[in-house]
Amino acid sequence: MKFILKKFIIIFMGLINMSASEDIGPLASHCVVTYKNSFYIFGGTIGCSTWASTNFFHYATPPFSQGKISWQPLSTTNVKSVTDPGCIVDETRGLLFVLGGKDQQINSTSPGLQIYDFNTQRWNDPQYSQNFIPRDLINDNWGPRAVWLKPGLMFMWGANSTTQGSYLLDINVTPWQWTILSDNKSYIAPTKNAGVVAIKGNAFIFGGFHENDSSINQTQYIYSPKYGFMTPQYQLPIPFNDGVIGVWNNKLSIIMMDTGGNVMEAVNFDLKTFQFESVISAPFIQNITVTRNRGQGAQLSDSVFVRLNFNII
Questions:
Q1: Selection from 233, 236, 286 nearest residue 264 by Cα
Q2: pTM for the complete prediction?
Q3: Facing residues of 157 across strands?
Q4: In total, how many domains does the chain have?
Q5: CATH number at residue 91
Q6: What is the pLDDT of residues 204-223, one digit of tens each?
Q7: Contacts 24+ apart (CB under 8 A), 275-281
Q8: Which residues form the signal peptide (predicted)?
Q9: How far are the Cα atoms of 131, 170, 172 from residue 175, in angstroms, in the given order?
Q10: 94: domain range?
């Protein structure tokens, strides 16, 4: 694996190189997705120190000329700004799902579920309104993560400070159907900002953050629609929070944004042997200072785009 540093932006392409680029400014606690060969960034805050909310929604399309990225603004009409949401795209229907997130306004709660229609370029059209939204998403549930187990069937991993709450959302039926999977199951640790990926219809959950004691989770989980939640025998070489996962060549490449020490490290996980390979540290770590890394990323083809928030000396 090889790193590519781009000032505030890093692209993983199996191997890591470094170059400079322009950027949109210091964002934190946002989400990143891909749709039709473009990257989209939503939500977050302006910087890690001020925590000023921003209703931010931009996109950029590769190739990036000489490492420069031109970000284009999109509509934020009829959408609520949140930090640390979980975002996922349905490519077939052309929909962006924004799950949970924390509303930074005093005495406010999250909408729980917000939907952007790429076809109409509008937020939260009436046909996407829900009669039921899990309370975990509404009550300031920051840090949920979601994957598609199969077309139209979403698995969502989330938590509050004391209990774990995971759900299925079936959008193949009308109205959309939510199923509670793990509400208050004592053997499942409540974690936020985990790395979640779907492999052959199962959800693999790596790492994450315990809100109640600020520790990083060391227990991994697998969710199977047939067998429920399982605790595998393999262990992460380094516990992490804020993970981005790319999948190719029967391997997972896990970019560990916050390992409690180094700013960022990466490790491959072999899907044939269920074994981790050696951990790789970013070569530019010595030039970065960070109080807490709040990056997000998304895979496009055989590359993983990661947008970090850190300070360069």
A1: 286
A2: 0.82
A3: 145, 166
A4: 1
A5: 2.120.10.80
A6: 998 888 877 777 777 889 99
A7: 275/234, 276/234, 276/236, 276/237, 278/237, 279/237, 279/238, 280/1, 280/16
A8: 1-21
A9: 8, 9, 9
A10: 3-312
